Each structure stands twice: as structure tokens, then as C-alpha cells.
Amino acid sequence: MLAILQTALTYIIPFLLVLTLVVTIHELGHYWAARACGVAIDQFSIGFGRKIFGWRDKRGVEWRVGWIPLGGFVRFSGDENAASVPDHENLQALRQKIEAEQGRGAADRYFHFKPVWQRAFITAAGPFANFVLAVVLFAVLLMSVGETVVPARVAAVEAGSPAAEAGFRAGDVVVEANGQTIDNFFDLQQIIAVRSNALTEFVVERDGRTVTLSATPERRLVTDRMGGEQKIGVLGISSPAGSGERTVRRYGPVEAVGAGVERTWRVLSTTVYYLGRVVTGRESADQLGGPLRIAQASGQVAQVGAQGAPDLGAMLLGSAVALLGLAAVLSVGIGFMNLLPVPVLDGGHLLFYAYEAVARRPLAAKVQAAGYRVGLALLLGLMLFATWNDLQQLRVFKLLGGLVS
After folding, report:
1. Considering Cα of 170, then 223, then 267, then 138, what sign does the dihedral take?
2. Which of 125, 187, 253, 309 has its CA 20 to 30 A from that of 30?
3. Would you call 27 a catalytic residue per the annotation?
4. At a CB cut-off of 8 Å and minimum separation 6, what does 289 contact?
5. What is the DSSP letter of 360?
6. Backbone dihedral region for residue 171 (phi beyond 0: left; psi -120 to 50: alpha; all else: beta)
7. Which runs of E-coded beta strand occur in 224-335?
8. Over the stretch 146-189, which tens digit does the pLDDT of each residue have?
9. pLDDT in tens, 250-278
10. Taking the model in full, what pTM does it have?
């Protein structure tokens, strides 16, 4: 029992806190956009399943908290018919039914009868809210906690490594990598990590002059500072962090927002680049993680944030700060994934709305229904694949084998 409680406190609770924050903001994006367009809303739920508690506001919206804390949803009036009446004829029948029951013009408040641009705006508002959340979290952390800065100076070059073959030398200061300006060794590491087996150009300052070097990071299995193993690109250079060159930089409000936007864009572009390499076969898909690995990362991040704290209050604060950083990164990922043109995701709905805008009528109900089935199958397949990777990464099968052998 004690072990179960410890696991819950270490991994499950941090994971649920991060997931709830990110998904709730996503759904609030849909909610506020719908409010702005005058859409009738029935319910906003944090969590699924049976209601723990809730209330109804003056607009008639039921706000509730479900007992399964794995996300949430906003339900527009008439949503229960969304899948069965997506085409023009069925929507007309639905309009007639609504106006017969509620009066002339009542259907104009329903999501399905709003102009296509408003429906697209409401749909896109969820992912957009995720990107805004990431910017805000990054900005708050940069203002309050600051950014650890380690100069992008090469302290040593590993013999026989890609860096050695490319001509890197100790003392070189990397100022540009793959066309991106570098002023922090951590940023350099992130670029190298996702470019295994990809020729990359670096610009370094050496003895008062600028030198351009080309190197191909090699893919290695490495252990990160939280004890997790992952296969990433490695160049073979070390940082000067151990020689006392680590500093903390804090940002002002305006500068922090700009830096938050830049970091959000960096996470997004890195995600797109990595997935592009996976799709084209240049990167292995075994690093794609699912909920189990996110839960593991949440627990590890919380533990790292609490390390070195003198008391319980400082430990909780450190864990909270670390989890907010993870939430910012995860929010970017969820925002991007929801924009993919896959039916059942926001991007799939946007694809259907684009067709409707051009053809001036919704896609046929049978075609939409088939698209939703295919999209759901793809989504479930991806989740199963990611979970399989999680089980392999966490060595669950090896553990089970040891128990029965």
C-alpha cells in the first residue's frame, strides 16, 4: 500500500496536474471563442465520467468536475447530433426541428448553423489557446525563476567523434547551428539531439575569427539527468558548465513575452522537424512516447525540481516550477497534434470546413462518417504504438519476464 501511495505521489499526481492544466486551457479556448460567436453551450467539464460536483451559471452552462481526471470537454447545444447530421439536408431537418420546438431563429445559436468561418475560428481556438498557454508559462518562468545560461564554448572534444572529424577545437564558441543563432549551450544540445545522421553546419568563433564547420551528429543511446534513456544525436563536445561559468538570467515583462514566443516557436519547429524525419524514415519512431512516458517524465521533473530544497515548502515550489516548464512544452505538442488534418481532431474539422467553404456545402454525411472512422482508427493505432514504446522504454516486459522466470 505504501508503495502504491508513493507511486501516486511521485508520478500519477504530477502527470494529472499537468494534463488537466493543458487540456482545460485547450477546451477553454473553444469555450471563449464559442461565447464570442454567440454559440449556445450546454456543458463544460474538467474530467470525464460521473460528476463529483458542479454548478450552473447565469447563462445556463453547467460547469462540472468528473471523477476521471484525464482531460475535459466543452459541449455545445446539439452536439449529440453532430455526427448524424453533418450534411446539408440533415442540417436543414435539424434546423426545422429546433425552430419548431424553440421558436423561429433559435437554431442560429447552435454551433452547426454558424457561418463556416465562425466554426473554423471556434475549432482553431483550442490549439491556439495551447500555444498562448505555452508563451505565458515560458514568460512567467523567465521573469520569476530566470534562465540558466551556459556559454556555448567547447570545453573538450571527444576523440573520434563527429566533432573531432569536423575540426572542432577546445575553446571554440559556437555562435550558429543549422542557421539558428546560439547563445546557450543547452540550445545547441537541443539542435544536435534531433539531427542525428543529418549533415549540420556550425559557425564558431576561434581566436578572433569566424570558422564554418560541417558535422553529422551520430545517434547514440544516452542517459539524461533524470535517469531516462533515449536515442539522440551526439556531436562529441562537452560544455564548460563544470568550471563555474553557469549564470542565471532574468527577463523583464516585455522581453519575457518575446522570449516566450521564441521558445514556443522553437519547440513547435523542433517537433515538426522530428516528426518529419520519422515519417520519411530518417529517424526511428521508437522515441515517440505516450501517456506512460509522459507520466514518468512528470514524476522525474517534479523530483528534479525538488532536489536541494531546504524544506517542504521549497520542495513543492521547486516541483511546481519544473512541472510548469513541462506543461509549456506539452501544451505546444498537444496544440500541434490537434491541428493535424485527421478527422476527430481539430485539424480534421478544419479540413472539412475548408471543403465546405470552397464547395459551399458540407461534405456528404457518409464521407464524413467514413473519415471519422479512419481518423479514430489512426489515432488509436498511434496511441497503441506510443504505449508499446513506453512499455519497451520502461522495461515492463523485461520486469514481467523476470517475475515469471
Report:
1. negative
2. 253
3. yes
4. 297, 386, 389, 390, 393
5. S
6. left
7. 229-234, 237-238, 247-249
8. 888 889 999 999 999 999 999 999 999 999 999 889 989 989 99
9. 999 999 999 999 999 999 998 898 888 88
10. 0.84
